[in-house]
């Protein structure tokens, strides 16, 4: 399944992805952004988050 993936080492916690697509991206208790487990991911919203991430640290991965 196609799933978004975050390079947390590069993420600056700008919260852009959480603001634009909270159903997929979540700020967790450990202090970093994680991907919410979903049966399928909304392609358009995730593509927008990828496009707007200032660090280019979101990408699609195949699981
Ligand atoms: S948009 Fe990119 S840099 Fe900003 S919180 Fe999300 S993954 Fe991190």
Briefly summarize what is shown.
With 63 residues, the chain is of the alpha+beta class. The protein is built from 2 helices and 4 strands, in the order E-H-E-E-H-E.
Walk me through the structure:
The protein is an alpha+beta fold and 63 residues long. The chain has a single domain (2-57), classed as Alpha-Beta Plaits (2-Layer Sandwich). It is 24% helix and 25% strand. The chain contains two helices and four strands. It has helices at residues 16-20, 43-52, and strands at 2-6, 25-27, 33-35, 58-62. The strands form two sheets. A two-stranded antiparallel sheet has the order 1-4. β2 (25-27) and β3 (33-35) form a beta hairpin. The longest helix is centred in the last third of the chain and has 10 residues, at 43-52. The mean pLDDT is 97. Residues 6, 11-17, 33, 53-55, 57-58 line the site of iron/sulfur cluster.
Topology:
Blueprint: E1 2-6, H1 16-20, E2 25-27, E3 33-35, H2 43-52, E4 58-62
Antiparallel strand pairs: 1-4, 2-3
Bound molecules: iron/sulfur cluster.
Iron/sulfur cluster binds at residues 6, 11-17, 33, 53-55, 57-58.
């Amino acid at each position: 399944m196609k799933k978004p993936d975050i390079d947390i080492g590069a993420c600056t916690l700008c919260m852009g992805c959480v603001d634009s697509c909270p159903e997929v991206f979540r700020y967790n208790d450990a202090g970093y952004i994680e991907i919410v487990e979903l049966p399928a991911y909304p392609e358009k919203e995730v593509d927008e988050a990828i496009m707007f991430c200032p660090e280019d640290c979101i990408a699609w991965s195949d699981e």
